[in-house]
Design brief:
15 helices, 358 residues, mainly alpha, globular, 3-stranded mixed β-sheet
Length: 358
């Protein structure tokens, strides 16, 4: 993705990509033959997953094609750099909003500070992500983070072939979600841009405050986050309207993650023989088994606890809807933006069924 140089930027995205790439840890080491086999295995698993996902979800990409997305097997640094490009798309226009409020473009120093912060966060996250469908890279592509898959399958002590296919079933379900609902990427980026622009206006007011007020505000939010009073570090800096908007965006993300989680398991032991063992051990890993206290604090500050709640809330919504109207009835959710569940409906699937199916 190439950005127009004339557009005001709140972050130096090129610098963010460089910082993220440099700071991303390399991950576990392995002989060249094992790494080559890992890359081949992930490409093969991604290809094998497509047919199973199409059959299990009963969804079809727009236009009827059975091809979902290009697949790239990457290292941590490449994943981190790719996400700076996605974030640049999602925050397009924020720089212009800040320039309008402050009557001046964001200074190069502030842009570099933002780049350093985002680069460092993405470097931290790069060691935790197994795969990701990126809808904002051209027509979309699937990224599989090879060192993280290798590390996870070794830590969980599960069959490599099964685990790699299981991961790809989840990510190819994401690819199908965006393929079946081609409006979805624009809907999400538009709503996110609107929210972030509103947050930029709020932050501009904070930026004009005295130094002691900034420290008090930021410190209060860090403490509230660690105590579990906020979902993420930014929640305490949102207005009530912004919290409502964030809740609805989060509901859509919960749908996407929960749907993918349910479908990857629904393929069943006929395709992934050790699926139940993988799920049980993976859930314990999600809950923090084996992680030190520092790791758990970092997870909390990065909002990863909220991310885990998305998987579970979304999965509960999907299962509840399916019990009532079946899988085909669930698939009405991909028909139009107005069919997406609200924050309230994610917690009350029957309300969504009544609204959409009558």
């Amino acid at each position: 993705m190439t950005q127009a140089s004339a557009a005001p930027q709140v972050v130096d995205w090129s610098a963010a990509a460089q910082i993220a790439g440099r700071l991303a840890p390399p991950g576990p080491q392995a002989p060249r033959e094992e790494l080559d086999a890992l890359v081949r295995g992930l490409h093969g698993a991604a290809a094998d997953a497509v047919g199973h996902v199409l059959e299990t979800t009963r969804m079809t990409p727009d236009g009827g094609s059975t091809a979902l997305s290009p697949v790239a097997v990457v290292d941590r640094a490449t994943w981190a750099r790719a996400n700076t490009r996605s974030m640049a798309v999602m925050t397009e226009g924020v720089g212009a909003a800040i320039a309008e409020i402050s009557k001046a473009a964001t200074s190069p120093g502030v842009q570099m500070a933002g780049a350093a912060e985002i680069g460092a966060v993405l470097a931290l996250l790069s060691g935790r992500v197994l795969g990701q469908f990126d809808p904002y890279s051209g027509s979309g592509r699937l990224l599989l983070v090879a060192p993280n898959v290798l590390q996870a399958e070794q830590a969980l002590r599960v069959p490599a072939r099964d685990f790699r296919l299981w991961v790809c079933l989840h990510e190819q379900t994401h690819a199908l979600q965006f393929g079946a609902a081609p409006w979805l990427s624009g809907h999400l980026s538009g709503r996110t841009r609107h929210l972030v622009t509103g947050m930029a206006r709020t932050s501009a007011e904070l930026a004009k405050a005295r130094f002691d007020k900034k420290i008090i505000t930021i410190g209060r939010n860090v403490l509230a986050t660690l105590r579990g009073e906020n979902g993420t570090l930014i929640d305490g800096m949102l207005t009530h309207e912004q919290k409502d908007e964030l809740a609805d965006i989060t509901a859509v993300m919960a749908l996407l993650e929960g749907h993918a989680d349910v479908m990857m398991d629904a393929v069943g032991p006929r395709v992934v023989p050790s699926v139940r063992r993988i799920r049980a051990r993976f859930e314990r890993r999600r809950d923090g088994e084996g992680r030190n206290s520092f790791d758990m604090v970092v997870q909390k500050l990065l909002g990863m606890d909220a991310k885990l709640a998305q998987y579970r809330d979304g999965a509960a919504f999907v299962r509840s809807v399916e019990r009532t109207v079946g899988r085909d009835g669930l698939n009405a959710v991909w028909a139009a933006p107005e069919n997406l569940p609200s924050a309230r409906e994610i917690a009350d699937a029957r309300a969504w069924v009544r609204r959409v199916h009558g």
